[in-house]
Structure formats: C-alpha cells, structure tokens
From TrEMBL:
InterPro entries: MORN. Its main location: other. The chain crosses the membrane at residues 537-566. It comes from Anaeromyces robustus. It is found in: Cell projection, Cilium, Flagellum; Cytoplasm, Cytoskeleton, Cilium axoneme. Keywords: Cell projection, Cilium, Cytoplasm, Cytoskeleton, Flagellum, Membrane, Repeat, Transmembrane, Transmembrane helix. PANTHER family: RADIAL SPOKE HEAD 10 HOMOLOG B-RELATED. SUPFAM superfamilies: Histone H3 K4-specific methyltransferase SET7/9 N-terminal domain. GO terms for cellular component: axoneme; motile cilium. The keyword Iron-sulfur does not apply. This is Histone H3 K4-specific methyltransferase SET7/9 N-terminal domain-containing protein. SMART domains: MORN.
Length: 567
C-alpha cells in the first residue's frame, strides 16, 4: 500500500459516520467501506476495509488503524498476507504477484523488502533469490538461481553482485569464485572452464585462471592452467598475456620472458621433435650431453608404454576424489599417487619410504621461479600432478629405488634403465591386477573404503591435522629450507596414541599398531621382532593409521556381537 493511500485512508477514517461498540458497518463519504468489530467507537479487532479503487484489507485493526496480522488484496488480484503496522507492511509476510507469477516470503520494513526473504520468479520456483534485502533490492548475502539453471551465491549490493561470491554457469559448464563489482569479476578470483572431453582423456578436462580481474577481464597478475597441462604464470592485459611471464608447456618446456598481446617476444618451441617431453635431470647429470641422451631414452620409454602409463594415471585419478576442491578429479592428486605407490608395494620391495620419494621429487624444484611451491608442499595430499608431472615424479622415484641396483639392459643405461625397470617391475603388474568389473566385490570394498575415508576426514580430519602440525618438526633427513618438510616419527605417533588413551591391552595393543604401520608405506618397522621407531611419518600415513584403527575397532565389536549371540 502506497503512502499517499495511507494518508487518504487515515483522513477518511476520521470522517466516519456514527458507529457502535461490537460488530458493525460504516461507509465513508468517499465511498470506502468497513465491516467488522468496533472498540470505543473506533475500528478495533477483526474487520474488512474496502477502498473505492478496489483495494481490500482483511485482518486486525487497532484505534482506527490497520495494525497486526492481515491480508491486502489489490484490484489486479495481487495479495499480501502478514504483519502490518499503521497501514504499512512491516515484519514477516508473503506477497503474491499473480500477473507476473512472482511471490515473496520474508521480512518487510516501511512497505519494502527489507531483511531476509525469498523471491520466486516463477510458479514452480525454479528461478528465485534467497537472502538479504534492503529497500526492495538484493543487498547483503544471498543466493540467486536463474531460469537458465545458473547459480550465484555470495555478496550483493544495490541489486548487483558485489563483494565475494561464486557463480556457476551451468548452461555453459563454467564457474567463477572470487570478488565481484557491478555484476562483473573484479579483484582476486578463480575461473574454471570445463570442457566436453572424453572420460578417458589423460589431461585435466578444464581450463583454469586464478588471479586478478578488472571489470570482467583478466588484468594484472594471474596463473592460467590449460586443459593440455600447460601453465602460464605472469602479467595480463585486457584478457591477454602481456608483460613478464613464464610459460610451461604440457611437455615440460619452459619460456621465461616477455609477452606482448598474447605472444612471446622471443622464439619458443613448446615441443621438440627429438624429445617430446622435457624433464629436469640437472641434479643427476651435470653434463648437458649426458642429460640429452637420457632425455631421448626416457622419451622412447614413455612412447613405448604410453598406453599403460596413461591408463594408470586415469585409473588412480578417479580414486577418492576431493569433492571440496575446485579441481575435483580433473588431475591426479598426491593422495591418489600415494595410493598407487601403496598398491605397487614399493616400500616393501625396495625399503624406501614415501617420505624419501617425495623428497627426491621435491629437490628438483628448489629455487624454481614458478614451481618452487612443489618444494615447499612436498607432502600436501591435495597437490595436483599433470600427466607430465606424473611421468617426472615416477622417473625420479625410479632412480631413487634402482640407481644402486644392477639391472641388465641392452638399450638403456642410467636413469632410463631405472625408469624402464620400474615400469616393468612395479607398474605393469599393478595395472594388470587392478582391472575390476563394475559389479565385483572388490568395487564394493573400494566404495566402502572411500566412504569410511570420507566420513572420518569430514568429521575428524581437521582435528587430526591440527594435532599432527602442532607436534611436527624437522628431522635429520628433512629438507630444512622447505616449509612443508616437518614430520613425525613412529615414536611420536605412538606417544600421541598413548596421550589420547587409544592404546590398550586388548583391542589396540602396541603390536597391532606397529603391524598397521608395517603394512602401509613403512618398510622395516618390524624386522625379526625388533621395532624401529625412527621412521618418519607424514600426515597422510598418520591419517590412514586412524582409519585402520577405526576398522579394527569395528571388526572387534562385530565379532563380539556374534560371540555373544552364539553364547
């Protein structure tokens, strides 16, 4: 109801004809009518007021004023039901616009949408806004679902996306999360372009930009990760690479220099006909000629086993995906890589721990301009690996495992023979043995294991992680200049389990805990009955131990129930 109508209604009410106590009827000089209850010769109680222009109010009155819960019905059949103060919609109420098929349910102030409420733009409620309002405008925190299926969740200002928010463009399979201004990305943000690629595509099936935006354009500093696996990290101007930047091709070749209007200012070949993939072997071979010979041999090996290597990458990429990350299952995570190494039983057969493998790979990134983060996050389970990264990790790990082993070979030597032996000895058997049908029992076990992992991580992951980080420290073999190479030993984990009274003399004995460690990733922890408590344990192994402890308790309780039932 408009303020002019309110003033006129009040003026006319005081021109009433004589009325009575109780229920009655009056008709004003201008033709407006009232039916209902009176109190002290004034409209008070429940009644119905009809304006000459067709507007109708039904509900509570007090001292000749509309106050309380009531219903407005306009001539065009629009309706409002809810709280009213002095003729004005104030409080909680529902408004229905039958002509435009919209309805609003929520808070009002001074006759306008103010506070929290839901505005539905169609009868089915497929398009709606739910959140905060200020004077009929979306303002504050809110969620907007568009008729296209697109969804925005975040901050609003004067009916515009402004502040921090996430936009899911479901009609074109894209999403943006970051800061906005005037309905456009502005400030820091991440944009993801998902691509329609085959399910068995070995590359991440998306393009991603993370960095600065200005009025909806990439502008400033940002990192673009291409679906091919290539990466650009540098300056942007008007959606173009422009300024100082570094480009790493999907094959590992690097351009570090100046870009102008999306092009390099110096010649650059992201691909080499002689060596398709480039791997950094500088820590192993100082001589450039030797490095090039090894690169050529490594590329030959990759081409020879390309199908098997890519199949393994794809298979493990889809195990236990992290649904909370924007990357989802587009590229292999360290967690998934560690699962592969666990299945290969490398720790058992070579007496090398997962920590040593991570350190071997991380060393090659120390001091690298863009890739230095891999040196500092060497034990981060959410770190991602492109297909090239996957090859490079396995190459360096194979050298760690077999460089001191005599391996007969006719065609290869050095790191190349180690990599070839690693593929044939460790990877190919696991690739052949993990082909599982969709209805197999193994699949059901995998699904159950994934659910248990997810449940424990969701409920207790942060607590366990905080405990680990609080007690972790640098060891003798740690990369001291790496921020992320602080770990715990087996002995430290045992002390933590004792501190939290997890160890006991019946279900979870010290020997059972040691057995769990000896099975997963830690070779030699129990050799001939002699316990070695000096093995380092990263957070991932600590967490897996908690899961195995959980399983042990469940199995014990299950057997106890069966035993009591039989007895």
């Amino acid at each position: 109801m408009e303020r002019s109508e309110v003033r006129e209604a009040r003026r006319q009410l005081f021109k009433r004809i004589p009325c009575q106590e109780g229920r009655g009827y009056i008709e004003l000089f201008n033709g407006n009518k009232y039916y209902g209850e009176f109190k002290n010769n004034l409209m008070g109680g429940i009644g119905r007021y009809e304006w000459k222009n067709g507007l109708i109010y039904e509900g509570e009155f007090n001292n000749n004023s509309i106050n309380g819960i009531g219903k407005y019905t306009w001539k065009n059949t629009d309706e409002y039901v809810g709280k009213i103060e002095n003729f004005i919609r104030n409080g909680y109420g529902k408004y229905v616009n039958n002509e435009l098929q919209k309805n609003y349910v929520g808070e009002w102030k001074d006759g306008k949408l103010n506070g929290y409420g839901i505005l539905k733009y169609d009868p089915e409620g497929k398009s709606y806004y739910e959140g905060e309002w200020l004077d009929n405008k979306k303002h504050g925190k809110g969620k907007m679902v568009y008729s296209s299926g697109n969804v925005y969740t975040g901050d609003w200002k004067n009916n515009l996306k402004d502040g921090f928010g996430k936009m899911e463009f479901k009609d074109r399979n894209e999403e943006y999360i970051g800061f906005w201004k005037n309905n456009l990305p502005n400030g820091k943000g991440i944009y993801l372009w998902n691509l329609d690629s085959p399910l068995n595509c070995q590359y991440p099936i998306h393009n991603q930009y993370e960095g600065d935006w200005d009025n909806g354009k990439k502008w400033g500093h940002g990192i673009f990760r291409y679906s091919s696996g290539a990466i650009y990290d540098g300056e942007w101007f008007d959606n173009m690479k422009h300024g100082i930047g570094i480009y790493i091709s999907e094959y590992g070749y690097i351009y570090d220099g100046t870009f102008k209007y999306d092009r390099t200012t110096e010649p650059f070949n992201y691909y080499n006909n002689d060596n398709q993939y480039f791997f950094d072997l500088s820590l192993i071979y100082e001589d450039e000629t030797m490095r090039n010979e090894q690169l050529k041999s490594l590329n030959t090996i990759i081409i020879r086993y390309i199908f098997e290597l890519n199949s393994i990458y794809l298979k493990y990429r889809n195990i236990q995906p992290n649904e909370n990350t924007i990357y989802k299952n587009y590229s292999l995570s360290y967690l998934q890589l560690w699962k592969l190494l666990e299945d290969c039983e490398i720790s058992k057969t070579t007496n090398n721990s997962l920590i040593e493998m991570n350190r071997k790979y991380a060393r090659i990134f120390k001091g690298k301009k863009y890739l230095n983060y891999k040196f500092h996050e060497l034990h981060n389970e959410d770190l991602r690996l492109t297909l090239h990264d996957f090859y490079e990790y396995l190459i360096h790990v194979s050298y760690l495992l077999y460089s001191n082993t005599e391996i007969p070979s006719i065609n290869e030597e050095g790191i190349a023979v180690c990599f070839s032996h690693f593929i044939k000895t460790n990877l190919l058997p696991i690739n052949a043995n993990t082909i599982i049908s969709s209805d197999s029992k193994n699949d059901q076990v995998t699904i159950l294991g994934t659910l248990i992992y997810k449940e424990i991580k969701d409920k207790y992951g942060k607590i366990i992680c905080d405990i680990y980080k609080d007690r972790a420290y640098y060891h003798k073999k740690s990369l001291k200049s790496s921020k992320g190479d602080q770990t715990l030993s087996m002995r430290d984990i045992i002390y933590i389990l004792k501190d939290y009274e997890i160890l006991d003399d019946e279900i979870l004995t010290l020997k059972k805990i040691i057995k769990i460690f000896s099975i997963y990733f830690i070779p030699g922890i129990d050799e001939d009955g002699i316990f070695n408590f000096d093995y380092e344990v990263i957070y991932y192994i600590c967490f897996i131990t908690i899961i195995k402890i959980y399983n042990t308790i469940i199995i014990y309780l299950y057997m106890l129930i069966i035993y009591n039932y039989i007895i």
